[in-house]
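Task: sequence design from structure.
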């Protein structure tokens, strides 16, 4: 059992490896303290690899590297406990393959460390071959200091906090979202932060943002599906505080179509009405609402058709009609035009515009915004800041957004806030900061 414990803690039970790993832990303890990370993480198997990557500014690589380290550790334990040569080989071969992959990620992390500490490439060989040597020197040598700390990124991000809140209104949608967090890889991770807005009734709103900016997380927080540290009110009602009542006031159409292909259009809507309409609604009123919604979305001629026989546009209208049964005040749609050609997508968006004109609030995510931008009143732009947290880079009228970003097209706005490694201009922090000033002012 002692040998197994040594493998878990140090990766091996040989005396020389245990000594080198102990020295590495000591060196990492000093490095972590210098980089603003608690030094005791150095003693936690696998987690220390992730923390070292954070020091190097290579957090994503560190996630993979730490997971690979955990799997390699399990294989090493299995290899030690194996009783026959064939069993040993079953563990040895995958362990060797994983070690090669780990080496590739370690080289990437090492490159980040060299940049942070301002050292030449020759140090990289030491990190790959004898990591305990540079770890001890950099961890305890006074002249070896990182150019920035892990906390420095967070500090820059905090400076962009607007400190602004929106007063709750008796009509429309009011969102005061302080933060939405999750625990990931041993630390609290901010998914969304500092998002405040008021949307007027009758407005159709475009939700923009690059991949990972937090669009889906935001709409889930607004509709109460995934609660954040926030206050969200709709027409004076508290979505979080009175969710059971308010759920009928919010309609959400996901990108995936959740319908049974063998059901008819009429039966699909009838079944949906039992879930999406209050229980105290009579059967007669429920049937009347189903008929009304079919007329609104042009589904009456195909009411007896099987769902699987519908065209792409008809399926989209049906999925929207299912949510519209409860006559919600807030309607949120995640890429309702995906898979549709330009003409069909335009017709669908025009239908949503008519819904907004009835005094509803309609929020739409679409990857082809410029072909229908004339139908929208406002635009929300979410962007990842330097801490990779979803933040509000703009909310307001479409025309004012064009002036604010200096871009005519919505897709150009997304490129302006996207990170450079994603093909964008990497100006997210700039626009987040500027909009925070606008809200303050």
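Answer:
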């Amino acid at each position: 059992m002692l040998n197994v414990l040594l493998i878990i803690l140090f990766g091996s039970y040989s005396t020389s490896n245990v000594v080198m790993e102990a020295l590495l832990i000591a060196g990492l303890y000093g490095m972590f303290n210098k980089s603003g990370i608690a030094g005791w993480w150095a003693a936690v198997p696998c987690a220390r690899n992730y923390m070292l990557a954070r020091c190097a500014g290579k957090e994503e690589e560190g996630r993979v590297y730490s997971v690979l380290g955990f799997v390699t550790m399990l294989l090493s334990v299995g290899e030690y406990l194996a009783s026959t040569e064939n069993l040993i080989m079953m563990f040895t071969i995958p362990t060797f393959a994983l070690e090669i992959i780990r080496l590739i990620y370690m080289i990437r992390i090492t490159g980040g460390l060299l940049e942070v500490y301002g050292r030449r490439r020759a140090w990289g060989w030491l990190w790959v071959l004898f990591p305990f040597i540079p770890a001890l020197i950099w961890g305890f040598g006074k002249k070896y200091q990182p150019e920035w700390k892990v906390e420095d990124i967070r500090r820059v991000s905090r400076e962009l906090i607007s400190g602004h809140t929106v007063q709750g209104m008796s009509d429309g949608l009011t969102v005061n979202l302080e933060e939405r967090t999750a625990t990931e890889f041993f630390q609290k991770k901010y998914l969304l932060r500092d998002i405040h807005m008021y949307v007027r009734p009758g407005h159709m709103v475009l939700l923009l943002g690059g991949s990972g900016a937090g669009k889906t997380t935001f709409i889930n927080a607004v509709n109460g599906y995934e609660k954040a540290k926030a206050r969200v009110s709709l027409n004076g009602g508290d979505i979080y505080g009175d969710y059971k009542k308010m759920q009928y006031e919010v309609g959400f159409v996901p990108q995936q179509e959740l319908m049974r292909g063998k059901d008819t259009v009429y039966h699909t809507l009838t079944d949906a009405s039992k879930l999406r309409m209050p229980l105290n609604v009579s059967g007669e009123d429920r049937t009347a609402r189903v008929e009304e919604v079919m007329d609104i979305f042009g589904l009456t001629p195909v009411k007896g058709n099987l769902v699987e026989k519908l065209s792409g546009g008809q399926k989209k209208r049906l999925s929207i009609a299912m949510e519209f049964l409860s006559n919600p005040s807030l309607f949120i749609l995640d890429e309702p035009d995906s898979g549709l050609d330009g003409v069909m997508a335009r017709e669908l968006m025009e239908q949503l515009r008519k819904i907004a004109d009835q005094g509803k609030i309609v929020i739409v995510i679409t990857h082809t915004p410029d072909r229908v931008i004339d139908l929208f009143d406002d635009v929300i732009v979410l962007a990842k800041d330097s801490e990779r947290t979803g933040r509000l880079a703009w909310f307001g009228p479409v025309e004012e957004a064009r002036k604010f970003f200096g871009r005519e097209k919505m897709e150009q706005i997304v490129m302006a806030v996207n990170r450079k490694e994603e093909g964008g201009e990497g100006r997210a922090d700039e626009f987040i900061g500027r909009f925070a000033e606008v809200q303050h002012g």
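Residues 156-440 form a domain with the Rossmann fold fold (CATH 3.40.50.300).
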